[in-house]
């Protein structure tokens, strides 16, 4: 019989399994560890593992529908054109019904936040895997302009 590169013969008289003699290469390989377990090290957490500060609460004093009201009020005006051309212009094109606010999700990420030196990135551990959320990801998700403005020549 063969399986996974080793042949095993069955003796018809003794009904015992016999393994063929191993080679020098196989013996050298058997003395080496099959795998090395490494535990990744991450920066210190902002909050201790399994510690969640307070109840998740989010204070929001306006609703996404206010954007629709602004569009109706400012439609065709120079102010509206200015808003559409700014970094906030993408907000006016978001389908509001698809972007519901999830305070629990935001709280979950923030309570798993890692302490890092980079000012424009947040790092989290999710299932013991590091996740980055920076201005780049924010821009990708929202469509807002998050690059520095270029000087007009």
Would you give an account of this structure?
With 153 residues, the chain is an alpha+beta fold. The protein has a domain of 77 residues. The protein is 28% helix and 14% strand. It is built from five helices and seven strands, in the order E-E-E-E-H-H-H-H-E-E-E-H. The strands form three sheets. Strands 5-6-7 form a three-stranded antiparallel beta sheet. Strands 1-2 form a two-stranded antiparallel ribbon. Strands 3-4 form a two-stranded antiparallel sheet. The termini are far apart. InterPro entries: DUF1985.
| Largest beta-sheet characterization | 3 strands, antiparallel
Count of distinct strands: 7
Percentage of helical residues? Answer: 25-40%
* Spatial strand sequence of the major β-sheet: 5-6-7
In DSSP terms (H or I, runs of 4 or more residues), the helix count works out at 5
- Strand proportion: 5-15%
Shape: elongated
Structural class: alpha+beta
Q: What is Rg?
A: 30 Å
List the secondary-structure elements in sequence, H or E: EEEEHHHHEEEH
Mean pLDDT: 66
C-alpha termini separation:
78 Å
Task: Report the uncertain regions.
Answer: 1-20
Strands, helices and their partners?
Elements: E1 2-3, E2 6-7, E3 9-10, E4 17-18, H1 24-31, H2 65-74, H3 78-85, H4 103-111, E5 113-114, E6 121-126, E7 129-134, H5 135-142
Antiparallel strand pairs: 1-2, 3-4, 5-6, 6-7
Biased composition (Acidic residues): 15-29
Protein name: DUF1985 domain-containing protein
Domain DUF1985: 110-150
